[in-house]
Amino acid sequence: EGSSSTLSDPTKDKLLGGLLSPQFDASSCLSRYQSASYRKASPHPPSPYLLQRLRSYEALHRRCAPGTELYRKSVEQLKSNKRTAPMECNYIVWIPHYGLGNRIVSLVSSFFFALLNSRVLLVHVPAELADLFCEPFPEASWVLPSDFPIKNLEKFDSDSPQSYGNMLRNKVIDNGMRFSANATLPAYAYLHLPWYYKEWDKVFFCEDGQQMLRKFPWLLLKSDHYFVPALFLVEEYEAELRRLFPERTTVFHHLVRYLIHPSNTVWGHVTRYYSANLAKADERIGIQVRNLKQEPVPFEFLLGQIVNCSVHERILPSILSAQKKPRAPVSGAKVKAVFITSLDSRYSERVRDMYKEHPTATGELVRVYQASHEVEQRTEERQHNAKALAEMVLLSFSDVLVTTACSTFGYVAQGLSGVRPLVLMKPWKSSLPCRWAESAEPCFLIPPRGVCDKHSGFDKGMAKHVRQCEDENEGIKLF
Ligand code: GDP
């Protein structure tokens, strides 16, 4: 399927510079080894040290995965709720929260945390996430088994007594315990990191918090954000991170391509849509439009932003007004395929009409596509999520990307592609209608500020590793 010129290209590096293990059965997850042929080769090779750490992570995951003796022992210990000796296998259980984009950026952040701390990442897969993603680790599963002794993981929230923040506040534990060999600790801690997290929860991002948490063989984590940038500010991790990611702005690009592979069902939707609509174009342009119900941008205003920014930045050709004489149609005119994603169908209809009713100044032909218009977000529905994932992946096949500020849906597409997007700004946050992002890195939109000791790495590291995001003044982003 797809255009044969790209798909049969033997120079395409299907293992993404060694990021992916060759040890999988390709048919169980077609997207894993086929994705490379739908995208331009990444100009950012992963570091040899990252590759080495991924391979040793995979070995650890195999030793500790559900079904192994070591997993059984760890679960026994969790059930017995007794003081825990240092264990060979330590886990982080990811709990999904909010929309699919939010889930993917927080899942990638959790894997980053697992990699840094040699913890095994297990994911809680509720029905609405079933059959969306392939297993990312060879010969072992990352799915949390249904007989896991802690139930109702979704219920953990700000007031859970087991949260790290509440345990600190209520003095059940204190970070000084990190020095004590025989402190009595609860069997697990819940890390509460969604956007509405509180001061005590934010201690997670401080040096002593990170050290203290190593005492827990089991951690449960709920977040809806890309929290990686804040971990770059923990001094203890600096040297290791420099080796893992000598090019800091590629962290998400590498890790999302390593971890997130659409299932064969979703990949079927992606490749069929691509072959039928996008494959033959000379250039592919992805435009991700996200207009939030809670803080809407008026339709005509946002449409104007999309068109004016795209034309001004020469992503889309300008049109000739009715009075001007169009060029004679040329055979072999270049075709630009514009793939628009939105819950609303009106943006693509209007852009399509514009190019139907007017010739372009360049003589190029513009074709406009939209795969779905779901009207409303319905994260609890599996089919709805499958469409969202397929569209993120289709966007990531674009040569040029236009995304909406502060949308994790767009962050996933830009990370998978490695393309630096043109960002449509929120009119109340910026005087510019759009800005080119400096990299494909997402923004950590709600970073913890002023929680860690002023003398710790957090505040010093700010200037060295992160800066203000283009799309959110309060957010931080690796640079
Ligand atoms: P964010 O809210 O923009 O950060 O992105 P999320 O992905 O976390 O949440 C938005 C959710 O709304 C998506 O996961 C989809 O369920 C739905 N949604 C929003 N925009 C689109 C779209 O363009 N296409 C599809 N299929 N779904 C969308």
From TrEMBL:
A GO biological-process term: cell wall biogenesis
EC annotation from Swiss-Prot or TrEMBL: 2.4.1.-
Compartments it resides in: Golgi apparatus, Golgi stack membrane
Pfam families in UniProt: XG_FTase
InterPro entries, per the entry: XG_FTase
Enzyme class, broadest EC rank: transferase
Record bears the keyword Cell wall biogenesis/degradation: yes
Coiled coil ranges: none
Main location: Golgi
One GO MF term: galactoside 2-alpha-L-fucosyltransferase activity
The protein's name in its UniProt record: Fucosyltransferase
Organism, as annotated: Canna indica
Lineage: Eukaryota, Viridiplantae, Streptophyta, Embryophyta, Tracheophyta
